[in-house]
Design a protein that fits this description.
Pfam families: TraC-like. It comes from Candidatus Nomurabacteria bacterium GW2011_GWC2_41_8. The chain is α+β, with helices and mostly antiparallel strands and about 210 residues long. About 50% of the residues lie in helices and about 20% in strands. It is built from six helices and six strands. The relative contact order is 0.20. The C terminus is likely disordered.
Amino acid sequence: MALNAKATQEFVPIKEVRDGIVVLKNDELRAIVLANSINLSLKSSDEQKATISQFQNFLNTLDFPVQISVQSRKLDIRPYLLLLENRIKVQNEPLLKLQTKEYIEFIRNFTETVSIMTKSFFVVVPYTHTVLKSDSGIFGKLFFRKNKEEARVARQIDFEEKRSQLEERVAVVQQGLGRCGINSAQLGTEEVVEVFYKVFNPGEAEGKIKLE
């Protein structure tokens, strides 16, 4: 008996990624901000309290929802080992060659026994254009035509106008994170595509997304 297989795309609510902005199938927009991490354990007690308080104030000042996502992946050490092996080829000092080979072997053995994980922190910033829905009953019938027209007009809102509103929110988020000592950067189209590719292909090697 044949099964009706559905493409993965049918289960993903993304219509397209345009200019770094995720456009959902319901025409809502999402921007993804990559943020670095800070080690509170290296700070003094007063600094820890100040950072936590600042982050709390940042969240309390937001008048729109955000989603914070943390992705943990095993670090692919192979590019680093390849870099070291290439350096051996151009190294003229025998002692340095030997030391580099021993270092490569140490790294290779170490990573085979210990899983080295990398964490990426993302803040998803949404923009949703609210469209009035028609009511049921006599009142709804009276205004149904008007609401239908409002929905048609809302669908014609230019993408650039909506993106402008979204980027204002992104700026607010980045400023708030900056006050907490957290560096951040909005992802571009290729970086956004890479993030979602990694989500749906968890077995792949770690990508190159990073803060400048």
